[in-house]
Amino acid sequence: MLVVSCWLLAAGCGGEEGGEPTDVPDREAYRTWIKVEPPGAVCGNGSQYKFFVNYSDVSNDLVVAFEPGGACWDYESCTGKSGIRGAANVDGIPDGHMDVGGRIVPFFQREYDDNFTRDWNMVYVPYCTGDVHTGNAEVVYEDPAGVDPPITFHHSGHANTMAVIEWMAEQFPEIPRLLVTGCSAGGAGATINYYFLRHGLPGVERSYLLADSGPIFPSEGYSGPLHDKVYESWAVESILTDLTAGFDPANFGSVNTAIAGEFPDDRLAVTYFRRDYNYSLYSYERFYDLPPPDDPAFKEQILDMWWSDTQLLMDVYDSRDNLAYYLPYFRSLNDSHCSTLISYAGSDIEELDMTMEQFVADLLDDGAPLESYLESVQPDEDLPEQ
């Protein structure tokens, strides 16, 4: 368990002597999840969108986590028909969503002494639009078999996120430190929406990004066809005109250097496993001619493309002092998907004497060097079943 300084845990650690906070606003409740329903915000099926806040009684720092949950861009994936991987919560967000959502994000666990954000304000951005929190389109998807009726799907992730940002700007006028995070679709959403968060929250003094297992690779690599598809299906280009001039619409992956250049004093990081066999499937399976999934060559070809794209992304991150990556090799949980899902267990890089906990601590410590870490191939891990 890490021993963390008062400075790292909360601004002022509660204010004056005796532990009583001096500058925390009065809230309706503290340290419990509260539902917020922004007017006009909708899920994929048109139902009311909702997100959740958990206020701190000792800190004005804020952690914002984007929810994971796949993606969809056609009838099969947006309905879950034919066994195709689709998106989460397409029928809406239940009021009890945080019974699960509040447990999968380690940054939300107030009871853990080694959670650096345990005393911060917390906002969870649920995912129900199939567009990595980014889309800006209402689409009618037709059943290609002509059997079932068409569906109208709201890829409204961008509008929903902007509604959350507008609400947070009113609730948190002063934010000494902001951490933006999320895994999988939430990791991609955290990266793409970072620009909008930073410009929409004027009270932020220091800011950090930890995008987990949703990398936005350079489009010249194997992720290019996926980028073309989501541009088309989610009308992503309609929001990209708002991004900084450092963004190249022809290269979705340029969002990484665009935000690094726009916010040179922010500390921005990505983490994922080299053997991630979840996000990699979404990225390549439906876009390339591959062996059957039961052929061992199928997985290796998928992961070879993932490694090729990873090397491109590493080159991008190595070009900026305020970008860093943490790339362990493998863990059995969730097909090596999401380094921070539920806990950091299994995300250590032993050969470099580095842990996920320490990487997060360094990321949030402005006085620590921002360094990148890559685990070498571990041949005894991720072996095929005999």
> Treating each run of at least 4 consecutive H or I residues as one helix, how many helices?
11
CATH class: Alpha Beta
Mind describing the biggest β-sheet? 9 strands, mixed
The backbone outline, from C-alpha atoms, is globular
- What is the name of the CATH topology? Rossmann fold
Structural class: alpha/beta
Residue-averaged pLDDT: 91
Any idea what the radius of gyration is?
A: 20 Å
Identify the strand order in the major beta sheet: 1-2-4-3-7-8-9-10-11
Q: Unreliable stretches, pLDDT < 50, 5 or more residues?
A: 1-20
Strand content: 15-25%
Number of domains: 1
Question: How widely separated are the two ends?
Answer: 37 Å
Based on the structure given, which CATH architecture is correct? 3-Layer(aba) Sandwich
Question: What pattern of helices and strands is seen along the backbone?
Answer: HEEEHHEEEHEHEHHHEHHEHE
Helix % is 25-40%
**Overall number of strands:** 11
Care to describe what's here?
By secondary structure, the protein is α/β, with parallel strands linked by helices. The chain has one domain (6-374): Rossmann fold. Helices cover 28% and strands 15% of the residues. It has a 9-stranded mixed beta sheet, sandwiched between helices. The protein has a two-stranded antiparallel sheet with strand order 5-6. Mean pLDDT is 91; it is low at 1-20.
